[in-house]
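Sharing a chain and its predicted structure for anyone who wants a worked example. Both blocks are below, sequence first, tokens second.
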Amino acid sequence: MLNIVFMGTPDFSVPILEALNEVYNVSLVVTQPDKLVGRKQELKYSPVKECALKLGIEVFQPEKIRKDYQAILDKKPDLIVTAAYGQIIGQKVLECAKYKAINVHGSLLPKYRGGAPIQRAIMNGDKETGITIMYMAKGMDSGDILAMRKEPIMENDTAGDLFNRLSLVGRDLLIETIPSLIKGEIIPLKQDEEQVTYAYNINKEEEELNLSNDATSIVNMIRGLNPNPLAHIYLGNEKTPENKLKIARATVSELSTNQNPGTIIDIKKKYFTIACGNNTAIDIHEVIPFGKRLMKASDFINGGLKKYL
């Protein structure tokens, strides 16, 4: 039976690991180190580690995979499969397996190389994305393509929605691809370097919405940053923690306004409306106020919003 080393970290990777383990022998799971999270600094396992432990698979968690990788070599894998692992992997690991190392990537390469392809596709207003299975190479997501499958982006999709669907698409495409790869039936396709775009990780500055932009681009940002880290704005005149409002769900408003961006221009029973750039506005439906949990806008309207009116 094919001996596989699997490398992954977030929820996206879990269905892929489960499927591989059903069909093949996954002898080792490599994932990111445990993290201390929350106010109580509790130790948290990655979703992939939790899955591996349930499946009874050995887990390896190097701080820096480029320096600490002997445990992988010792397994003498036939194939290495990665899916959102989160570290740059050195050539000795990439070349140690009989059938090399392949990656499950959440975009239609060469578009959106990098760590946030799913979020960027939504933030940019794309209508479709997909999964690419490719050989891993020295450059970021630059390896030859083995298989690809498209997936539409629905109008109300959040990054979380798309992560969940693409995880299953990636799982199925990988399981279909591996037998053909092993048999030598796939002709790898080189990526067109002239078509390359990048999907860099989300930075802190992007989490604050620029309300001078038009409503459609703002709603796309909100969708792309949901469920984590969530977009936010500041209500009132000061950027204090107490005035910070995370926005989980919003839609483009039918209202047209010439009010200054950021102005609350309407309040309904279930949502409130904020002016944006280009005479547009957004209707806000779900929020997380400072120190609170996710709530419907109607609950916020009846409570915390009043002090900003």
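Comments welcome. DSSP finds nine helices and 15 strands in the chain.
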